Amino acid sequence: MQDAEIGxxxxxxxxxxxxxxxxxxxxxxxxxxxxxxxxxxGAAVANFLLGLIGVSLGGWIGYLIAGFIGACILIFVWRAxxxxx
Length: 85
Prior knowledge:
75% of the residues lie in helices and 0% in strands. It has helices spanning 8-26, 32-52, 59-82. The relative contact order is 0.21.
């Protein structure tokens, strides 16, 4: 997230929204802290994966999109490990 173009406080806020949207989309029912963590870590994961194929997302909207995509990936992997649907 070195070129995210947003500060840490904004990253927490946008990451919280991204995690919340992903939680609603994937029907997880997690709390606000888990949503923030999912969104921020998810954005880092998604930016890494998208960087491998040459796609770069920046700014508020890019961070929100990357956070949503990454959080969905993390939720999917977590469910696959735990054996939940």
